Amino acid sequence: MNNNSKIDSIFAEATDFELTDAVHGAIEDLYGFDAILEKAKNVPFDRWVVHTVIANTGYFETNGYSYFWGTKHDHHGFAEALKVIGKPILAQIVETSIKKVPKDILGDWDKVDEYFGSYEKRLEAAIILDAKLINEHPDIVPKVSKYIRKNRIRYYDVIDKIEKSIMESRKLFEQYES
After folding, report:
1. Which parts of 14-137 fold into alpha helices (H)?
2. For position 60, what pLDDT does the model report?
3. Residue 4: how many CB atoms within 10 A of its CB?
4. Cα 42–Cα 43–Cα 44 angle in degrees, nearest 5
5. What is the pLDDT of residues 40-74, one digit of tens each?
6. Would you call 166 helix, strand, or coil by DSSP?
């Protein structure tokens, strides 16, 4: 089986979640979180997009915008990556969120809390934005999966890692189900 047919086979059998999770992990293992965060020149753009969307989506699934403001990461890059995968409305919501906090304090928990007046007021400021995110969020994994599948040939160098991750994920799921 050549690389292209192996990739096609693995990607065809994987669910959207399996594929995005496996590719995200392979990208982070290969380059390291810090290199991706800093948009290191050795990280291909399509891989940066996938990692950025999946990694940042996790913030919202747990704590929402209030967490987003105080966390050190590429705030504007997340919005850019959302546009690339086809989520322009969500990208605009994220950009609006970013503008709620002065640029020089993004990523600094203490300064963000001080800006809003307290931890509680920071949470309160995020409620409306979080509601918008929830309305726009449901199809992020399928969008990222579609983007990965479109660029699948670019993953031949990590296909064994992707395949292994998918198999491990399925094995864990089977154990959970039994």
Report:
1. 16-31, 33-37, 45-62, 65-70, 75-85, 88-99, 109-116, 119-136
2. 66
3. 12
4. 110
5. 999 999 999 999 999 888 766 666 677 788 888 88
6. helix
